[in-house]
Structure formats: C-alpha cells, structure tokens
Predict the 3D structure of the following.
Amino acid sequence: QVQLVESGGGLVQPGGSLRLSCATSGFTFSNYAMNWYRQAPGKSRELGAYISVGGGISNYADSVRGRFTISRDNAKNTVYLQMNSLKPEDTAMYYCDTRWTTLGRNYHYWGQGTQVTVSS
C-alpha cells in the first residue's frame, strides 16, 4: 500500500523558514521522481517543486524559485522542502506527490498534506 505522509508545517512569521518532510512507503522510492504541490484557499493546486529520481535535477515554480529547495534521501524514502524567506502568499496546504505509468496504466499518489500559514 503506497503511503505518503507530510509533516513539518505550522505557523511562521513572514521572512521565517520551515522544513517540510514527506515520508513514503509501499513503493520503490528511489525509482520515482517526486513533487511538492500546494493549494491555497479558493485556488487550484499548483506545482511548487520537482526533483528527479537521483536528485540531480530539480525545478521550481517562479513564485518559489530562489527561496525553496527540494531534496531527497533515498535511503530514508523521504523528500524534503526547505522553505526560506516565507511570504504570506505562501500560505497553503502542501502535498507531496508522485506518479508513474506502468503497462499503460497511470498511478498517482499524494499525502494528506501539511498546512503552512505565514502570518504576523
């Protein structure tokens, strides 16, 4: 059974930092790219960051580039999102996500999310 469990969210002041973690199980973590998405109230879910299988390639949304860093530890089956210089507009539910296609069938998994609130 595939499981993704996010943690590390909370309330932080503007300019502060948080580190999100996503612990996974039930699949071969080291074989798949991982994503962090976020969804603010009343808005659609948006991709925040992507990391490749080995961690050598990462991409970021323009809104977070230069402030957020995605990383992974394949030995711990965990992906991280280091968030610095947080802004009120970063307030959202953050989800880790993975997807793949096997034998023509699409698989898509995500966790329950962790809430990040940036406010003074």
